[in-house]
Each structure stands twice: as C-alpha cells, then as structure tokens.
Design goal:
This is Spore germination protein PD. It comes from Thermaerobacillus caldiproteolyticus. By secondary structure, this protein is largely without helices or strands. The protein is about 0% helix and about 0% strand. The chain has no helices and no strands. The radius of gyration is 18 Å and the shape is flat.
C-alpha cells in the first residue's frame, strides 16, 4: 500500500458551535502532543448536574 501525505496550509473560515462540554477539545490543525488528565474525588451522591449553558452568538 502506498500512502502519500501532503501537508498544506489550513485555512478555516467560520466555526459555529452550539455547545462545548467540560471534557472536550476543539482542534484545528496539527498537534504534536496532547496530554489530558482528569481527577474526580467527589462521591457521586454529591454531584450536582445542572442544565447546559449554551454559547451565545456574537
């Protein structure tokens, strides 16, 4: 199998987001290294889940 990669300039016009969660990433372009970590030490019964807060358009 022959596989050819041609890296060219990335040109991004507009991005429209409805919502972003607390554990998400929006990546445009290349990334050599992405390190993610998470720690959650609160008991589940004390977790308060509220309504989502949408992003307001400008």
């Amino acid at each position: 199998m022959n596989y050819t990669v041609i890296n060219r300039d990335v040109q991004v016009g507009d991005i429209y987001l409805t919502a972003v969660t607390s554990s998400s990433i929006l990546l445009i372009g290349d990334a050599d290294i992405i390190n993610l970590a998470s720690a959650f030490d609160t008991p589940p019964e004390s977790l308060f889940v509220g309504p989502f807060v949408p992003l307001t358009p400008k």
